[in-house]
Amino acid sequence: MSAAEEIIEVCRCLYERGMLAAADGNVSYRASDDRIIITPSGQHKAFLEPHEMAEMDISGRTLKGQPSSERLMHLEIYRQCPLARCVVHAHPPMATAWTIAKPHLDKLPAGAMPEVTLAVGEIPIIPYARPGTEEMGRNLRKFLPRQRVMILSRHGAVTWGESVIEAYNGMERLEHAAQILHLAHSLGRLSSLPFDEMEALRAMRAKRGDRTL
Questions:
Q1: Please, what is the average pLDDT of the chain?
Q2: Is 84 within 8 Å of 150 (Cβ atoms)?
Q3: 55 catalytic residue (yes or no)
Q4: How does residue 174 score in pLDDT terms, banded at 50, 70 and 90?
Q5: Cβ atoms within 10 Å of 129's Cβ, excluding its own
Q6: Exactly one of 70, 76, 172, 175 is catalytic; which is it?
Q7: 18 Rama class: left (phi>0) / alpha (psi -120 to 50) / beta
Q8: Nearest to 111, CA basis, from 179, 197, 182, 175
Q9: Are 154 and 136 in contact (CB under 8 A)?
Q10: Model pTM?
Q11: What is the CATH number of domain 3-208?
Q12: What is the mean pLDDT of residues 58-84?
């Protein structure tokens, strides 16, 4: 499967999971040190064809087509994260809703969920920036390259990985956790695991490495 075909498969999965609507979202793939394949601007991501993919270099110069309007965010991740091979930006509804309903949060309150700590670690909420601006990339800098799964305040989420499937897994993991937390919150209140247990889980995560599972 080509990189373009992998991107299209991810876009369709995101659409089927309700994390993309109409022309929302964007996915990119670093094909070489200087060449990035990215979804085109203004098109429905669930109905793309391989020949419609845009291309740019690491400086942002367009090589083919019309790259996504949010390419600056993708470029910042590639520049800060040498291991990044794929970047996914989508609008997972529940993860986004947390940032709208509880704007004081600086991370997803997932301390009660061992699988989140083991598979992702903490999931920070990045301060709001207007879509498509350089500020979006600047706001990510202090979280990179350590964080691979991040919520964008009021604007969805962004994930990166050493493969297309890792980047997609991060988005799926995030939205699933956000849904569980919403259900727990609606049933009463959120709880957390004991401090010692969280420390043990973080140690296990450190041994496994930084990849999103």
A1: 95
A2: no
A3: no
A4: very high
A5: 19
A6: 70
A7: left
A8: 197
A9: no
A10: 0.96
A11: 3.40.225.10
A12: 95
Structure tokens at 142: 């202090």
Domain residue spans of the chain: 3-208
Q: What is residue 47's DSSP assignment?
A: G
Q: What is the mean pLDDT of residues 181-204?
A: 94
Residue 15 CB neighbour total at 10 angstroms = 19
Answer whether 34's CB lies under 8 Å from 58's CB.
Answer: yes
pLDDT at position 1 is: 79
Strand partners, 211: none
Exposure letters 153-189 (e unless 16+ CB within 10 A, then b): bebbbbbbbbebebbbbbbbbbbbbbebbbeeeeeee
Tell me the one-letter amino acid at 151: I
User: What single-letter amino acid sits at 62?
Assistant: T
Token duo for residue 14: 């995101």
% of the chain surpassing 90 pLDDT: 94
Q: What is the pLDDT of residue 74?
A: 97
17 C-beta neighbours (distance < 10 Å), count: 16
Predicted local distance difference test score (pLDDT) of residue 189: 86
